[in-house]
Design brief:
The chain is built from eight helices and 17 strands. The two termini are 29 Å apart. The protein is globular and about 50 Å long. The strands form six sheets. Strands 5-4-7-10-9 form a five-stranded mixed sheet, sandwiched between helices. Strands 1-2-12-13 form a four-stranded antiparallel sheet, with no helix packed on it. It is of the alpha/beta class and 348 residues long. Strand 14 and strand 15 form a beta hairpin.
């Protein structure tokens, strides 16, 4: 589950403060290399002395609870709920197409496919890894708002049920995951207040099958400073914190959604039925592999600072290259090998 970052910030600040060590030499803010690396407003020295293993801690007890992971090739079925412009759809689909190394057209590292490799380190009890093969297998546009402009967690499942019934949209209970994306004018239960996205599985009584799904909303008109961070920042961070970064695809709402989509897909793949990989003892509120690294995008990050990312000639910030020449800004994921947050754009 992706929590609104400003609500998560106090925990992250304390977490990284406790884990960091002191040093006598400050970090370099930028590197004169191509592409240009950029770390807006480096954090105070105690939060940034070590570039290695951001978020690493023996205190994180991420455990396997014997449930399945998505080890078979993954078919994504997108449900566009509300009014979606074709350019916005294309940005999101290009990101999804970039995940699988068989479909990505990115030529320069670090790539989205490189980022997904951390997710594929997670295995089930048979030793099978999360799949590296991801395909957009179908799309459905519900532009008539069949369940209104306000959705609850239960009515999100009704949206899936409607999509399955109204379109040759298969009930793919073996390989399918369903991605519900709501437009700027759709409000969702707990959106902005407690979550920016969530994943779960459908109830057979509502859809007919148990199907893993994730919901993510476009926050640009409702709470961009909450759910599209760091492309928008809360007012209280304007003075001493990092300023808003320029989104890589020139769209605060959709670029903000990309990292939340990545977050939810990583957790959905490693914990599809909420009984596989998570920390904590309460499966109704698990701390998953994306939650542990929320807000971290590069080396030196932590405590509300994104870390060192890249900046193109137009001043747009990113940390991954994707299909069709796209660039994306995606949070890091907890690595079960490093026992730390990891991303392919790490400088160490």
């Amino acid at each position: 589950m992706y929590f609104p970052f400003p609500l998560f910030f106090p925990f992250l600040f304390l977490f990284f403060l406790l884990l960091s060590t002191s040093s006598t030499s400050p970090n370099v803010q930028t590197l004169n290399a191509q592409p240009e690396y950029h770390n807006p407003k480096l954090p105070p020295r105690p939060l940034s002395t070590s570039k290695k293993f951001e978020g690493s801690s023996n205190l994180v007890n991420l455990r396997y609870h014997m449930g399945p992971v998505l080890s078979s090739p993954i078919n994504i079925y997108i449900i566009w709920y509300g009014k979606w412009a074709p350019p916005h759809k294309n940005i999101i689909k290009d990101f999804l197409l970039s995940i699988s190394p068989t479909t990505t057209t990115a030529t320069a590292a670090p790539t989205v496919a490189d980022w997904w490799r951390t997710v594929t380190l997670y295995t089930d009890q048979t030793g099978a890894n999360v799949s590296r093969s991801i395909t957009v297998a179908g799309e459905y546009s519900d532009d008539l708002y069949s369940h209104g402009t306000h959705l609850t967690r239960l009515s999100v499942q009704q949206v899936i049920s409607s999509a399955v019934k109204r379109k040759p949209f298969p009930v793919d209970h073996k390989n399918g995951i369903y991605l519900i994306l709501t437009s700027v004018d759709v409000t969702v239960q707990d959106f902005c207040r407690a979550v920016c996205g969530f994943h779960y599985f459908t109830f057979p009584s509502m859809v007919g099958y148990t199907l893993p799904y994730a919901w993510i909303g476009n926050s640009v008109k409702q709470c961009p400073e909450v759910c599209a961070y760091p492309f928008a920042v809360p007012g209280y961070m304007g003075g001493g914190g990092p300023g808003a970064l320029t989104p890589p695809n020139a769209d605060v709402g959709v670029d903000g959604m990309i990292s939340v989509i990545a977050h939810e897909l990583a957790e959905l793949s490693s914990n599809p039925l909420v009984n596989a990989w998570y920390a904590g003892e309460d499966p109704t509120a698990p701390t998953e592999i994306g939650d542990l690294c929320e807000g971290l995008y590069g080396t030196g990050g932590g405590g509300g600072y994104v870390g060192q990312v890249m900046k193109d000639r137009m001043g747009r910030t990113y940390n991954l290259n994707g299909a069709r020449g796209r660039k994306f800004m995606v949070q890091w994921i907890w690595s079960p090998v490093l026992k730390a947050c990891a991303g392919p754009n790490a400088l160490d």
